[in-house]
Amino acid sequence: MNTKKNKQDDEIYILGSTSRRGKGDRTTIRRRWIILSIGLAIIIFGSLFLILSYINNIKKEETIEYYFEPEETLPLSITVETAAIDDVNQKGYIETQEETVNEITLLVHTPYHVTMSLSLGKPDKSDSTIIFITQAADIRKDNKRIVAEFVLEGKQIARGLSKKGFCAVVDHTISIGMADETPLLQQSIESNGFFFRQYPLVYHGEPITNNPVNKSIRRALAVRNEQVIMVESTSALSFHDFSQALVDIGVSDAIYLVGGRDAHGWYYNKESVRHEYGIDNLAYPDYTSFIVWRTK
User: Fold this and answer.
1) Above 90 in pLDDT, residue 15?
2) H-type helices in 227-295, by residue range?
3) Can you tell me the distance from the alpha carbon of 201 to that of 246, in angstroms, rounded to the nearest whole number?
4) pLDDT tens digit string along 113-162?
5) Other C-beta atoms within 10 Å of 27: how many?
6) Which of 68, 97, 212, 276 could lock 239 by a disulfide, CB 3.0 to 4.6 Å apart?
7) What secondary structure letter does DSSP report for 139?
8) Residue 17 to residues 13, 21, 165: CA-CA distances in angstroms?
9) Can you tell me whether residue 190 is helix, strand or coil?
10) How far apart (Å, rounded) are the C-alpha atoms in residues 174 and 185?
């Protein structure tokens, strides 16, 4: 009897032990499900965070504030090429003429016997080889870095496609165009050339629609009769009025150049007389870029 009772007690003990072990298994499974749920939640929320960050970065790129000009424009695709004048026996100079259309007066600067390059920082006024300078690319207002692609003597300083117009200098050939991508960027790098982007103003003789927020002294790098010229307004104009004025004087294609009334620069005429404009002692951010025309 005692033995049977003991066996029964053992059986009861075993059944009780099995029950407790089953409870432990359920607890372990529950913990695993909790851990798995937390892991999935982390993955889901992490993915959402990355997606939202990506979207936010895109929005920031679309709303970049520019240091000099905040306007936007439409993408285009056209390239006009023109070679620099190659007479090495004459000293370079700038011919400046006033042209008036629809009561808007423009200064048209035509370079002769010069080559074009870019520089970071204001060029030295005492450099006797410099015939003309004017500002080129824009910079961001937040970090003072160059907006969009920029190549200086073959070195790519900046990237980005926020502006569709471009100017490339490859083996002394100047190309002014409008495109999202162009092989001239890589060519400028391989040839130790120059490249920058800006807003397009004129396309195949038609003014480009922009969204100006103000009126300002406007400047452009343009092509007229297969000759590269620089054009400057003598009064504050909107983008629309400036683009239309360029078309009215026969410009076929043009991109914008930054720099308002106070922007400083100079040029030499045929008689080697230097003409200065703007304020000489302006403080420019380090990444302010300039177009530099030098005598050959």
Assistant:
1) no
2) 239-248
3) 8
4) 999 999 999 999 889 899 999 999 999 888 899 999 999 999 999 999 88
5) 10
6) 212
7) B
8) 6, 6, 81
9) helix
10) 12
Residue holding tokens 């890589």? 186
Query: What is the spatial distance between Cα 180 and Cα 160, in angstroms, rounded to a whole number?
Result: 10
SS3 245: helix
Q: How far is CA 216 from each of CA 156, 178, 212, 259, rounded to the nearest angstrom?
A: 30, 23, 10, 9
Tell me, what amino acid is at 98? Answer: E
C-beta atoms surrounding 34 within 10 Å:
10
Residues 196 and 182 sit within 8 Å (Cβ to Cβ): no
Interior/surface letters 243-263, b for 16+ CB within 10 angstroms, e for the rest: bbbbbebebbbbbbbbbeeeb
Q: Phi and psi (nearest 5°) for 90?
A: -120, 150
The token pair that represents 189 in the structure block = 């790098």
pLDDT for the residue numbered 191 = 96
Residues 230/109, Cβ–Cβ less than 8 Å: yes
Closest CA to 202 of 194, 210, 190: 210
Mark 169-188 as b/e (b = at least 16 C-beta within 10 Å).
Answer: bbeebbbbbbbeebebbebb
Angle at 262 between CA 195 and CA 93, to 5 degrees: 55
Can you tell me which residue has the tokens 């033995």? 3
Whole-model pTM over 0.85: no
Tell me the C-alpha distance between 160 and 168, whole Å. 15
d(CA 222, CA 230): 6
Could you tell me the strand order of the sheet in which 78-83 lies?
Answer: 78-83, 173-178, 165-170, 194-198, 150-152, 155-158
Dist CA 210 CA 69 (whole Å)? 12
